[in-house]
Write a structure and sequence with these properties.
With 300 residues, the chain is an alpha/beta fold. It is globular and about 70 Å long. α2 crosses α3, α4 runs parallel beside α5 and α7 packs across α10. The protein contains ten helices and 13 strands.
């Protein structure tokens, strides 16, 4: 299998802080790879090392078969980078902005204009960048990262601060980019986003990768109980607690929730009592895996 990225034993220190502490991973060609972690986990530093923006203290990394550091001009046309906070040239329209970025790589104006359609900004081509909405600006930022047709794309929290509609619209764009064969490396704080988009994710904390694998596999390995909920009053809490397979019961006056590792038994028992009106069954998610590995305390 061809690996687009291969990292081995990467370390980066700032004084006593180990921002990246012995990280190793590989990203195959065409994969949608996610890097997750709380604030200060080392995600951005790791990406900067892989992108060739920062030198590692120890370890080795290759990107598309090349060493990214010292800054490697052969890699620049082959990678695209969308930063968490993007700055555009002032007073330019979306079309002019994209053509300017494309000109840095010798991309013809017509090809640059075509990228507007790819990210759904055709109708905003003549709008100045400062007049774009947050979601539109993020899509333009991604278009700038893609305008030279890179093989590998780095996306640093591309949907941060977007409303739900804008996020889902951008997800469609990212799926289409990946379907075209590009390798994508994504950092995000949204677990549902990573679970939906990524083939594999690496969960980082304190500069280390704690777990790596397909989201569904990580969720299964957690072996967390299922949660079955119905409206309060459908079943008494005491009766729910006596059902075969029920482990814990909570009733907040709106919903009665049964935690269980034998959901089929509980549901069958509820069906026998005609207590399935409005039933919802929720298993573990990637967010549960994330919290189990990194803890639940708030980090600024």
């Amino acid at each position: 299998m061809t690996h687009t990225i291969s990292a081995d034993g990467l370390r980066k220190r700032y004084g006593d802080v180990r921002a990246v502490d012995g990280v190793s991973f590989e990203v195959p060609e065409g994969e949608f790879f996610g890097i997750l972690g709380p604030n200060g986990a080392g995600k951005t530093t790791l990406l900067e090392i892989v992108e060739g923006l920062r030198e590692a203290d120890e370890g080795a990394v290759t990107v598309l078969g090349e060493a990214p550091w010292p800054r490697n001009p052969r890699l620049l046309p082959r990678i695209g980078v969308q930063l968490q906070a993007s700055s555009f040239f002032e007073r330019l329209t979306a079309r002019e902005q994209l053509r300017t970025f494309g000109s840095l790589y010798g991309v013809p104006a017509a090809k640059a204009d075509a990228m507007l359609e790819t990210v759904g900004l055709n109708d905003k081509a003549d709008v100045r960048v400062e007049k774009l909405s947050g979601g539109q600006a993020q899509r333009l930022s991604i278009a700038c990262a893609l305008v030279h047709d890179p093989e590998l794309v780095f996306l640093d929290e591309p949907t941060a601060a977007l409303d739900p509609q804008a996020r889902r619209n951008l997800w469609d764009v990212l799926r289409a980019i990946n379907t075209e064969g590009r390798t994508i490396v994504l950092t995000t704080h949204y677990m549902d986003e990573a679970e939906l988009l990524c083939d594999r994710v690496a969960i980082m904390d304190a500069g280390r990768i704690l777990r790596l694998g397909p989201p569904a596999a990580l969720v299964r390995d957690l072996d967390a109980p299922a949660r079955i909920s119905v409206a309060s009053g459908v079943l008494a809490a005491a009766e729910a607690g006596a059902l075969p397979g029920a482990d814990e019961v909570a009733d907040d006056g709106v919903s009665l929730v049964i935690s269980t590792r034998a959901p089929s038994e509980v549901v069958a028992a509820m069906a026998a009592r005609d207590a399935l009106d409005g039933v919802q069954i929720r298993g573990a998610t990637l967010e549960d895996v994330f919290l189990d590995l990194t803890g639940r305390e708030y980090r600024a």
